[in-house]
Each structure stands twice: as structure tokens, then as C-alpha cells.
Amino acid sequence: MIFSPEEGECETGRGGAGVLAIMPVMYPEMGQTLIWHSLSLTQRARARRWAMASVLLLYTALAACDPGTKPGDRIELVLWKNQAGREEDAQTTAQIDQFNAKQSRWRIVPQFLPQGGYDQSIVAASLAGRMPCILAVDSPMVASYAWAGHIRPLDGYVATGTLAAVSPSAVGHYAGRIYAAGQFDAALAIFTRRSILAQMRMRIPTLDHPWSGEEFQTLLERLKASGIYRYPLDLGTRDDKASWWTYAFSPILQSFGGDLIDRRSMTSAQGALNGEAAQRFGNWFQALFAKGLVNRQEPDENAFVRGRAALVYTGDWAAPAYRTYAGADLLVLPPPDFGHGVVIGGGSWQWAISKACSHPEGAGAFIDFMLQDRQVAAMSDATGNVPVTEGGASASRDFGPRGNSRMFFDLMRRFARPRPATPAFSVVANAYTFAMRDIMDGKDVQDAFDDAVDDIDQTIADHHAYRTGGHP
Amino acid sequence: MRPSQHSSLPLRLALYALMVLLAVVFMFPFLFMLVSSLKSNDAIFADVSSWRALLPVGPLTGANYANAFLRGNIGHYLANSVLITVVSVGLGLVVNSLAAFALARLEWRGKQVALTLLVILLVVPFEAISVPLMLLVAKLPGIGFGGDGVHVVRSWLDTLYVQVLPFVANAFSIYLFHQFFRDIPKDFDDAAYVDGATPLQVYIHIIVPSSRPVFATVTILQALTMWNQYLWPLIAVPGEGARPLMVGMQQFFAARQTAWGEVMAYATLSTVPVLIAFVVFQRWFVRSVIGSGVKG
Description:
The complex is a heterodimer.
Chain A: E1 10-11, H1 13-26, H2 33-38, H3 41-64, E2 75-82, H4 86-102, E3 106-113, H5 118-127, E4 134-138, H6 142-148, E5 151-152, H7 160-165, E6 171-174, E7 177-181, E8 184-185, E9 188-193, H8 194-199, H9 213-226, E10 233-234, H10 242-256, H11 276-290, E11 311-315, H12 319-326, E12 330-333, E13 344-346, E14 349-354, H13 360-370, H14 373-383, E15 386-387, H15 390-395, H16 406-415, E16 416-418, H17 425-440, H18 445-462
Parallel strand pairs in A: 2-3, 2-4, 10-11, 13-16
Antiparallel strand pairs in A: 4-14, 5-14, 6-7, 8-15, 9-11, 9-12
Helix pairs in contact in A: 1-3, 4-14, 10-11, 10-17, 17-18
Chain B: H1 9-36, H2 41-47, H3 63-70, H4 74-105, H5 111-122, H6 126-138, E1 142-146, E2 149-153, H7 171-182, H8 186-194, H9 199-210, H10 212-227, H11 231-236, H12 245-248, H13 260-280, H14 282-292
Antiparallel strand pairs in B: 1-2
Helix pairs in contact in B: 1-13, 3-13, 4-7, 4-10, 5-7, 7-10, 10-14
């Protein structure tokens, strides 16, 4: 396998033949036994020594040779991407083929890695000095990768105009610089049926006039009182991954006025995660379960489809199944405004250039290509992911002005807020998730958030507030 | 546990009932996997809280198996895993038994030190050495077999042999061989030496034929370890060409909604070779568990 052109393979047909020629001397049973048996013991020992020395010399020589890139050859740039499903991987491959065909200088060589161990693979490759040139990075990890020295800033390699057209939530910042940019994003929404709202005598909220927290609470309690739904709202709490709990529930915390961390300093969660706003949010969240408005653990992800829940809080990826189920009765609504505006999570997988890449200009050209409106639109139409540029949305069949998924683009553009760009994000996410699950189970809200703040602040302090780079 | 012929009938019935109950408990995950592999995602979750989860009822489909091959590329990964397992076990048997022979049957200076180091190595988990090993193999030149013939590659990463060679020499296997070889009477060796045999001839003609049970034990334990490799290929084999079976399964967890039916079909196909091996070598397998005190 080729990792980069300067680490390329050394064509050595003769070398291989040489090794094969020596094999019978080292291993006489493999052939030439007659010659071998005609030798004296001393001659055999000498022959073995010479054979060993020759193999070592050959091996060293071959290992040292570097054919480099022949004039006129394309320069190969290895790209690593998480396996993200059939449609997305196929579309990425198609767009890589298009890029390879439209210019003659670079050839992108993609490798799709299992998502489950993607971060471990990146860290291991970085330690071993075998990083690919281009890599996909989950947006919350951008700061960590940048701090650790795995990736480099995009400025200078991707056109400023291209980056400016990308929705802010799809751009990965760290320490004031852009390190990654996504071709698509995702958007969270409330899904329900028009008929259910009519039955409950509730208005249909809009982007400009979303439900207030009180209206949302009224709806939930009316649904519960109707006796039709044992648990009216599905929040997806059966998914126990920190990535979901942070992505889904930190925006609601922000809508209450709190946050995961103090975004001005990025060095403490004190006050943001355990202040008065967070306390109100935690009490509201806990009451959802205490009052039986949300099931602690839905048996499957089909509560809305099977009619067990009237409302579901999830993302654009669920829309196709819900459309099949509810048809024209389906409503895609903005989440409620709990006092500080509607907020949804922003940032999906993004493209970055590794620090080890010897040809960042080639990697930049590729990323620039992928962020053009045509590619953005094609990716969104193939996968259902939300486009990140106005032009891409306009060119898209599904996300254009009259597309049936337009709502998700509008939600993303108006309300998406990226998760905090700190190298401590994985600790922040875990601490927040533990706290939220404890609150769901009835723990004192203040205690739960105080514990999370302690964990986060201690980690940041242990790393000297990430003032210095994390790479060796 | 086998009820004695002299046990009373009620006691025997109770013991059999207990064994049947235990068998059901142990069969539960396998049955669930097998049945779920024939159902759609929706059907799996609809049946999950009832006995239907263990019965092939409702709409059944073979699409999950088709997807495991078409989408999951399981044929390729299966071939890789078979190759890795067979080669590493084959080489491991030779290398480890020879090492154990030297430790158990030959006299040489430093033998006790080597044996002590070997025992120390037994307690070092692979996770502790995975990163240093990665750093090492990343910079080791190796031989590649591409379309243009034999050539040298600058790293062992992303190859089949990086999944084999670091695991050929195994402290636990050497220790098992050593313990077994130690108990073979030395008189056999002495008689052979008197007749002019070399140590290698003693190993081949006396030790190996007398040690079939331990060879079977090591084969089974090593084969299971290699078949189930996950962490190492995850970090050392980024490409799909040399990817083994267990890592290949990860692709079904990539999408936002896990395709559980396909996961179960893939898991069933991954289990079948091990199950066949178990049925064929059941006698040896049970002996290996008893002899080594280790479950597979």
C-alpha cells in the first residue's frame, strides 16, 4: 500500500529474483539438493553465511532505495475517511474520481476506515509518522487534532472565497484559525403530525415564531393528559453515546442560557455548566422523566413511527422514514426557544490536511473542489445530508427553495451552533453526558453539574489550559 | 458434569434439568444472532422483548446475508482472516514448540533467565505494547507482492504479514509446550542421543509424536486469538486490502442507524468457521480447556 509518494514503493523485480535465488542456499530442502550434498560441512557453513549476508545487504539496499516520482507522474495523495454508509462512501468515491479526472497533477487515493476505531487509527498513524495527506475529522475533534499537531490550518491552501461560502457551523476553528471544512452538516428538529397539533389545539411554530418553552410544556402535558400516549416525546435517550447526548442536549442547555464551557476563555466550565440557567435546564430535563413525558429508554428507535410517541426530537437523517410513515401530515419544526433563542447542534464530518502532508497544496485543491456548490449539492442529494453553502442548497434537488428537505437547511443556517472548539471536548462531552444521565435518573441537578464542571476544569488545568501544543 | 449411574433417579433428573437450563442460557446469544440475521431491523426490535426474538417467525429475509457479501465484502475479509490464522498458527507451532524444546530438553547457559523472562512476558497485556509495536513495524521495510512482482515497501503497515509475524512467537504457547515437554521422560532423548541423533531429530521423532495434545491445545487457543484479532489490525491496517473479518464488521455501525440484521448476518458468518472447527475438534477443544485452564 502506498502512503504518500515520497514513501512510495520501490520497484525491484531483480531484487525479488535475487532473494529467490538465494533461498535454496539457505534452505537446501527447497531445491538443488544434489549440489548441496556435494559440499563439505565447512563449505555448507560458509555458503550459509554468505547467503545470510547477501540477503541482509540486499534487504538494506532495497529498503534504502527510493524511486521518487517519475517526471510526468501524478503525485498520489492518500485520503482517509470514516466509513459512513453506502451512499456517502459511494458519493465520496465518485467525487474523488471526478477530481482525479479533471486535473493531471494529483491523484487522490481514498481509504475508508471503520468509524468505530477511526480516532485510534489516526492517533496511531500520527505516532508512527504514517498520516495520510487528507483526512475526514468529526467536527468536535478538530480542536483536539489541531492542538495535538495532527492537522494544519487550511488558510493558504483552500481559497478564502470557498471557505467564506461555507456555513459557519461547518467550519472547524481552533485558536483563531480554520483547520477543517465540511461538505455537509446535519440539523436537529422536532417531528410531529399536523393532525396531532390540531387535536391538541396547538399552533404550528415557524422559524420566525418557534414555540416558547411554556408552549412546548403545555403541548407535552396535553398530550400526556389525552391518554393516547404513555410517553408523548421521544428524545432518543436509548442512544447512550456521549456524541448524541452532547449534540442533542447541549443546544437545549444553550437555549436556556447555559453552555458546556465558558466560550470566552475556553478554560473553565464554571458558571456556564453549573450556573442558574443550567440549573433551570436540568430541572426541566429531570421533570420530563419524572412526569412520564419522556420514556427513559424506548425499546427501539421507532416510537414515532409506531405511534407510541407524538413528537420526536432527532435529525434530518430520520426524515425519509417519517415521510413514508406520515406523508403530507408530517411536520418538521424548529426546537423550542427556552429564552435565549432556538439552538441546534452544528458541525458534522469535515475535511482537513494532515501536518505530515508533503503536498498540502494538492490536498487544498481537493478540498476546494469538494466544497464547490456542484459537489456539495450532489453529496446532499445522494445522502440526505444538509448542504453547507447557499449555492449548494440552490443547486440541490432536495434542499433547493422548493425541495422537501429545505427546512433542514434553513434550520442549520439560522440556528446551528458548533460545539466548543477545545481540545478537551471529549472530556467535556463525557462529563456532560454522565451528568445528564444522572439527572435523568434523579440525581440532584446542582450536584451533577458541579461534578461535571470539576472534571472538565481539572482536565483543562492538567493540560495547562492547552497553551502549548500536544504533539511530542 | 455427568450424573453417576449410581445416583438416584430424582437427582439425575434434577442434574439433567440443570444442564438443559444451562445449555439454553448459553445457546441464547447464538440463537438470537442466528434468528435476527434473518429479520429486518424493524422485526428485530419488534420481537426483542418476547420469545419471538429466539424463533424464526414473522417475515424472514436472506437480504442481510446478501448485503454481508455485497456491501460488507465479507468474502474478502474472510479469506484474509483464514490466511492470517492458518499461517500464524502454523508458524507459531513450529517456532514456539522449538523454543519450548530448547528450554525444556536442552542444557545451555542462561536457560533459567530465559524461562523467567518468559514467565514475566505472560503478564504483559498486548494493549501495553501495541503502540511501541506500531512504531516499530511502521518503520520496518518489508516485501510487497503487487501487480509488478516482488518489491520492497517501506513499512509493514497495511500488510497481511504485519498481522502474522508479531504474533508467531507467543510466550503463553511456549510456556504450555514447555510444561508438557518437561513431563516426557528424558530417557527417550538419551536413548536417541546414544544412537547418534541430533537435537532436531529428537524433537521431530520423539517430542512431537508424544505431544499431540499440547499441539492441539496451542492450535486451538492461538487460532481463536488470531481469528478474533481486533485492536491490532484496527491501528496497523488502515486499508481494506488486508483488513480481517472482525474489523470489517465495523462498517455496519458506521451509519447513524445501525443495520442490526446485517450485523447479525455478518456475525453468524464469522462464527460458522469457528463453530465447524469446534464440532470437528470438540474432543481436543475440551482437553485444551482442561489442560491449559484457559477458556478460548
